Amino acid sequence: NEDQFKKVISHAKEYGYVFQSSEIYDGLSAVYDYAQNGAELKKNIRDYWWKAMVQMHDNIVGIDAAILMHPTTWKASGHVDAFNDPLIDNKDSKKRYRADVLVEEFREKIQQKIDKDITKAAKRFGDAFDEKEFRATNGNVLRRQKQIDEISTKLAKVQEENDLEGFRQLILDLGIVCPVSGSKNWTEVKQFNLMFGTKLGASAESAMDLYLRPETAQGIFVNFLNVQKTGRMKIPFGIAQTGKAFRNEIVARQFIFRMREFEQMEMQFFIKPGTQKEWFEYWKETRLKWHKSLGLGEENYRFHDHDKLAHYADAATDIEFNFPFGFKELEGIHSRTDFDLKQHEEYSGKKLQYFDHEDNANYTPYVLETSIGLDRMFLAVFSNALVEEELENNTTRTVLKLPAVLAPTKAAILPLVKKDGLPDVAKKIVEDLKWDFNVTYDEKDAVGRRYRRQDANGTPFCITVDHDTLEDNSVTIRHRDTMEQKRVKIEDLKAIIKAEVDV
Ligand code: ATP
After folding, report:
1. Separation of 483 CA from ligand 1 center, angstroms?
2. Is residue 199 part of a domain?
3. Contacts by 496-499, CB closer than 8 A, 24 or more apart
4. DSSP state of 127
5. Is residue 53 a contact partner of residue 60, using CB atoms and an 8 Å limit?
6. How high is the ipTM of this complex?
7. Is there a single domain that holds both residue 351 and residue 449?
8. Where, by residue number, does substrate bind (predicted)?
């Protein structure tokens, strides 16, 4: 799986999807640029989300709030005081780690040992294997499971109490070693705020300390009343937005999974207090359906309900995706009560209430939030799409099986040879189709090689113009995934492509 992940990263670079930022200066850690194909894929994912959330819901509207906000926003939201990670340094390697992540990874390793034992036993016993019974009776598994449970309980406790010394003690007790130096020589645990600071104003005395927003949600909360009034929105209604967010992440490995500058797609749904349970269920189901509609495989998603809730939340779940490095959070769905609006009322001194005509009463709405990282979604789609296939003639082909609706280029138009007027016909097709789709023209190399190139690039269709085309106005259309080829009329191309790439 580590190999698969390496392939994903190098394919993303080789085919113009994702580059390291400022690469000629050796890059900037955990910051990435989307290249010519990546920018298209990212835009298509964003559009797919926007269409499902805003266009398809009569009661959801979209906004585009600024990255810079009044600094009091972050006091009200709790980010100034509570947006901290517990960090610990290894004295020998001088490397810094998130204390909670060190403990989680230690626990994960024990889990992997259990999984290994189970796989081994399943192989040995064949059909007679009963996993439940094995888990309940095998000494090794029982011992390890007990260890995992103990670690989870202790971790939850120190997290809840924000007990920094407790964190360090847990790491020492478990004998966790530094992945780089292998030593157990740890410093104390410190807290570190994840927000990037900046300044507004030129002169030193009058400059105002600002933060780059660490989430897009607050831009929605502070505009709640503006949007409700000008849009004459009636509860329940939602406000959606996509945009950049910034976090000074310490553990920023795993490519575009955890970045310092990233993009979120968030929606806050304002509801009547007391209805949050129904809406929580509704949005869990609706969001999972959205994911499944892309066809990445239903087995690759699972819910992870939070036992330990943030102080403002009364229910929370993650939609986890099976990334090349395992199941990890892709999207969060949170029932946030009236925490955010109440906080902003308190700090701004302005009422953020809704007058319900049916009830003839004012109230502060409750909020249900769906929040997904666009870059994480990109990684989910991209890593899931990349496959190597064994073909019948014992060769392999690399295919990027992107959902057609998301693919950067929908069709490549290929003249079989570079002469006899075939390029002219092919270019004419490009001119016709480009009003509706991103298409590309390619005349270099043998047609088989061009097919492979488009396969690796994720292009769903190849359209080949040959000598017969000059006689019958037909072309060969080849499907990326099935490699099936069909003879079709040029005039039917638009409809054929549309049928697959439109949602
Ligand atoms: P994690 O626990 O993985 O750090 P989080 O719980 O802090 O994530 P939220 O604050 O709930 O994440 O943010 C909502 C979504 O934004 C996440 O589900 C994720 O998809 C995305 N996201 C958060 N932090 C990052 C990041 N550093 N890089 C890329 N995407 C991110």
Report:
1. 38
2. no
3. 497/410, 497/411, 497/433, 497/436, 497/437, 497/460, 497/461, 498/436
4. G
5. yes
6. 0.97
7. no
8. 98, 215, 262-266, 369-373
Is 205 known to sit in a ligand binding site? no
Pocket test for ligand 1, best of 18, 262, 334, 382 (most atoms within 8 A of CB): 262
Residue in 104, 159, 264 to alter for ligand 1 test, most ligand atoms within 8 A of Cβ:
264
At 32-89, the pLDDT tens digits run 999 999 999 999 999 999 999 999 999 999 999 999 999 999 999 999 988 888 999 9
pTM given for the model: 0.88
258 assigned binding-site residue: yes
CA distance 278 to 281: 5
**Cβ pair 221, 345 in contact under 8 A:** no
Q: Which domain holds residue 3?
A: 1-70+210-386
Helix 422-433 vs helix 493-501: crossing angle, to nearest 10: 50
Q: Whose CA is nearest to atom 14 of ligand 1?
A: 371
* 32 phi-psi bin (left φ>0, alpha ψ -120 to 50, beta other): beta
SS3 223: coil
Q: Is 79 in the pocket of ligand 1 (CB under 6 A)?
A: no
- The residue nearest atom 18 of ligand 1, judged by CA position, is 331
> What's the CATH number where 35 sits?
3.30.930.10
The answer on 349 and 225 residing in a single domain is: yes
Q: What is the residue with the minimal CA distance to atom 19 of ligand 1?
A: 373
Among candidates 447, 386, 379, which has minimal Cα distance to 412? Answer: 447
Q: Which residues pair with 240 in a beta bridge?
A: 62, 267
Is 369 annotated in a binding site? The answer is yes
Write out pLDDT tens, residues 282-335: 999 999 999 999 999 999 999 998 876 777 778 999 999 999 999 999 999 999
Give the separation between CA 154 and CA 150, rounded to whole angstroms. 6
Same domain, 179 and 225: no
Instruction: Decide: 428 and 415 in contact? Cβ < 8 Å.
Output: no
